[in-house]
Design brief:
Length: about 90
């Protein structure tokens, strides 16, 4: 399943197992119809080249997170998940 949207936060963090990652938080507008939005997060391995806040990013079931009009990629860590505090 694909996910993605407009990037609103990049947060460096350490997972419980000690792995350093970046949490990417996106908002997808009109996800469930007009006026409906969805907030999702995904972890990525840290790297030098990053998308900017406001950029559109997307990912599928594989290991890549795409950005910069599909010209650049990041390595996804695990699966996407609902943003903290969002309603399910």
């Amino acid at each position: 399943m694909a996910g993605g949207g407009k990037l609103i936060e990049i947060l460096p963090m350490r997972l419980e197992g000690g792995k350093d990652v970046l949490r990417l938080w996106v908002i997808s507008t009109n996800a469930g119809g007009p006026g409906v939005h969805d907030e999702t997060c995904v972890y990525a391995e840290p790297q030098d080249s990053l998308p900017a806040l406001g950029d559109t990013i997307w990912w599928g079931g594989g290991r890549w997170i795409m950005f910069d009009n599909d010209r650049q990629q990041m390595t996804k860590v695990g699966y996407s998940f609902a943003a903290p505090g969002s309603r399910q």
